[in-house]
Amino acid sequence: MNRHTARELAFKALFGLDFAPEKILNTLENLWSEKIAEGEIPPEKLVNFSRELVLGVIEKKERLDEIIRRRAIGWDFNRLARVDKTLLRLALYEMLYRPDIDIPVSIDEAVELAKVYGEEESPKFINGILGYVAEHIEEFWEES
């Protein structure tokens, strides 16, 4: 078990946020319980990592959505695919608020998850927005 799995479970829990915000941490705990039932015993640090990501995205959601709105030029925010919004929020949170995670790792992870859970154009769309933020990260750090 690795950080990719922890991040994927955080993504799944955050995706559920749009449907049942009051159950978000229960969702995350249930996802971890499923992994344990499958015989994967996660190190506590990975469970904590995914929990920190979920709570951090929830806390900074307004700011993260503001950045997505600014960079998704020509797109109506409310019509963006939920998978894309969730992956963007997660990666942006890591990029802006988790200095322990290299920015290229955050981008690569979001793109890889988009290939699995998103639509055909999702990886390119996500990479474009995150790439722009990465190139201008100082501007976004100052505002965060």
From TrEMBL:
<dbReference type="Pfam" id="PF01029">
    <property type="entry name" value="NusB"/>
</dbReference>
<dbReference type="InterPro" id="IPR035926">
    <property type="entry name" value="NusB-like_sf"/>
</dbReference>
<dbReference type="GO" id="GO:0006353">
    <property type="term" value="P:DNA-templated transcription termination"/>
</dbReference>
<keyword id="KW-0694">RNA-binding</keyword>
<feature type="domain" description="NusB/RsmB/TIM44">
    <location>
        <begin position="4"/>
        <end position="134"/>
    </location>
</feature>
<dbReference type="GO" id="GO:0031564">
    <property type="term" value="P:transcription antitermination"/>
</dbReference>
<dbReference type="GO" id="GO:0003723">
    <property type="term" value="F:RNA binding"/>
</dbReference>
<keyword id="KW-0805">Transcription regulation</keyword>
<comment type="similarity">
    <text>Belongs to the NusB family.</text>
</comment>
<keyword id="KW-0804">Transcription</keyword>
<dbReference type="GO" id="GO:0005829">
    <property type="term" value="C:cytosol"/>
</dbReference>
<dbReference type="InterPro" id="IPR011605">
    <property type="entry name" value="NusB_fam"/>
</dbReference>
<comment type="function">
    <text>Involved in transcription antitermination. Required for transcription of ribosomal RNA (rRNA) genes. Binds specifically to the boxA antiterminator sequence of the ribosomal RNA (rrn) operons.</text>
</comment>
<dbReference type="InterPro" id="IPR006027">
    <property type="entry name" value="NusB_RsmB_TIM44"/>
</dbReference>
<keyword id="KW-0889">Transcription antitermination</keyword>
<protein>
    <recommendedName>
        <fullName>Transcription antitermination protein NusB</fullName>
    </recommendedName>
</protein>
